[in-house]
């Protein structure tokens, strides 16, 4: 068995302790040892570089490629997105991300293709389709009668549109049958859906209670696209594990999240990506552009207050709304818009994200016995500039993939 020695660099173990000078030995896809003066069969010299746990992004959409243009979207061949996903997954891996939560789009075929090594990509937990009420964030029917849906129903991918507790029960069971690792629901309107309002809560408590009960019975956690204050509270009240976006958080919502141990995945990149797309000339509905501008400041402010209040944060970007591969820009935004230090942002991107995803016994820290997903960064962790260009190498289960 070949022992790989990562030699002469600093190690950030993911727990929040500052990086320290150490070697790491990897054998048979696992971390064997960490310390000074270790040896191995094959040595990788890391002077001036930092070894980190393989990074996480807890909110991506591989089947969307950052082109929000309505007409181009309508004219795009249906299956093209699967081929675009190959490039999107490779770009994500190149930026040091070895694990993701797929927040809707990818189905079991996409996940299996990566697992079988047909295409390169991060490990993924898939949600397949986002559950949305009629007229909600996942319902892209427009007044002309046209439907610009991201969520066609096809084998392995049920429709996400659902109304009423009994339909909800059946749909969650369908998603689990089709291989969903996590259930995604929209408990409020959103920015990219032209006909709803991010300040309105979606689904009633009877629907969310059934959703969570069915998910929990199958050992699945639930993630909620939740922007509206009452949509956030309904999600938390019903035991949903993570609030995605969390744009209109008030003090009561923050205290409910603290009581229930609910996670926040802020996706500060997301509204900025919509605004950047519009500025680059993408044709978007005027309501979408208006909503992106309206939420920008309150989103940052909510995030700042959540961090000050002590809410648990895991890194997620909503990549797919914007281009893939720029995921690590989220760390700079998190630090800029809260009291988080760069080290806190790295914890949110490693051990905290692994805890949110329930995989922290195997991933998320550099510790003996853990799977050898490792990312090597050129330079120091406290410098969050040009992170994508500074990813020097990426290992997945002890195999170099970048
Ligand atoms: Zn999303």
Largest sheet: 6 strands, mixed
User: How would you write the strand order of the largest sheet?
Assistant: 3-2-7-17-18-19
The hetero molecules present are: zinc ion
Q: Approximately how much beta-strand content do the residues carry? A: 15-25%
Helix content: 25-40%
Q: How many extended strands?
A: 19
pLDDT averaged over residues: 96
What is the C-alpha radius of gyration, as a whole number of Å? 21 Å
Number of domains: 2
Here the CATH topology of the largest domain equals TIM Barrel
**Which architecture of the largest domain per CATH?**
Alpha-Beta Barrel
General form: globular
CATH-assigned homologous superfamily of the largest domain: Metal-dependent hydrolases
CATH class of the largest domain: Alpha Beta
Number of helices: 12
SS content category: alpha/beta
Low-confidence stretches: none
Separation of termini? 22 Å
Element layout with pairings:
Elements (H helix, E strand, L loop, with lengths): L2 E5 L2 E2 L8 E2 L1 E5 L2 E6 L6 E4 L3 E5 L1 E6 L9 H6 L4 H15 L2 E6 L5 H8 L7 E4 L3 E2 L33 H13 L4 E5 L18 H13 L3 E6 L2 H9 L4 E4 L5 H10 L2 E3 L3 H11 L6 H24 L2 E2 L15 H8 L5 H8 L1 H6 L17 E5 L12 E6 L2 E2 L2
Parallel strand pairs: 1-6, 2-7, 8-9, 9-10, 11-12, 12-13, 13-14, 14-15, 15-16
Antiparallel strand pairs: 1-4, 2-3, 4-5, 7-17, 17-18, 18-19
Bound molecules: zinc ion (ZN).
Zinc ion binds next to loops.
């Amino acid at each position: 068995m070949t022992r790989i020695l990562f030699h002469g660099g600093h190690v950030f173990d993911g727990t929040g302790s500052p990086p320290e000078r150490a070697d790491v030995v990897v054998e048979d896809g696992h971390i064997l040892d960490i310390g000074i003066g270790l040896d191995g069969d094959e040595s990788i010299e890391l002077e001036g570089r930092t070894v980190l746990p393989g990074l996480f992004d807890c909110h991506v959409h591989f089947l969307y490629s950052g082109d929000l243009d309505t007409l181009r979207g309508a004219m795009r061949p249906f299956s093209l997105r699967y081929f675009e996903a190959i490039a999107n997954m490779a770009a994500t891996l190149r930026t040091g991300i070895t694990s993701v939560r797929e927040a809707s789009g990818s189905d079991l075929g996409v996940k299996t293709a990566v697992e079988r090594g047909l295409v390169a990509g991060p490990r993924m937990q898939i949600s397949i389709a986002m559950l949305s009420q009629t007229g909600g964030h996942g319902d892209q029917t427009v007044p002309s009668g046209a439907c610009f849906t991201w969520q066609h129903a096809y084998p392995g991918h049920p429709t996400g549109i659902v109304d009423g507790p009994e339909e909800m029960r059946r749909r969650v069971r369908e998603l689990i049958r089709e291989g969903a690792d996590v259930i995604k629901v929209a408990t409020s309107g959103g920015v990219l859906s032209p006909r709803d309002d991010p300040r309105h809560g979606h689904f009633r408590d009877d629907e969310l209670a059934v959703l969570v009960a069915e998910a929990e019975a199958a050992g699945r956690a639930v993630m909620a696209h939740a922007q509206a204050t009452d949509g956030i509270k309904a999600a938390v009240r019903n035991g949903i594990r993570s609030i995605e976006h969390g744009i209109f958080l008030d003090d009561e919502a923050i205290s409910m999240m603290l009581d229930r141990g609910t996670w926040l995945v802020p996706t500060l990149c997301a509204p900025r990506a919509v605004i950047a797309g519009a500025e680059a000339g993408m044709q978007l509905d005027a309501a979408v552009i208006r909503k992106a501008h309206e939420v920008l400041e309150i989103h940052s402010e909510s995030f700042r207050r959540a961090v000050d209040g002590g809410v648990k944060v895991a890194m997620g970007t909503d990549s797919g709304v914007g281009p893939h591969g720029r995921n690590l820009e989220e760390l700079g935004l998190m630090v800029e818009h809260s009291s988080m230090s760069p080290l806190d942002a790295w914890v949110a991107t490693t051990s905290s994200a692994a805890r949110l995803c329930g995989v922290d016994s195997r991933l998320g820290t550099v510790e003996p016995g853990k799977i050898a997903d490792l990312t090597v960064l050129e330079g120091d962790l406290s410098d969050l500039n040009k992170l994508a260009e500074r990813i020097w190498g990426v290992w997945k289960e002890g195999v170099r993939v970048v």
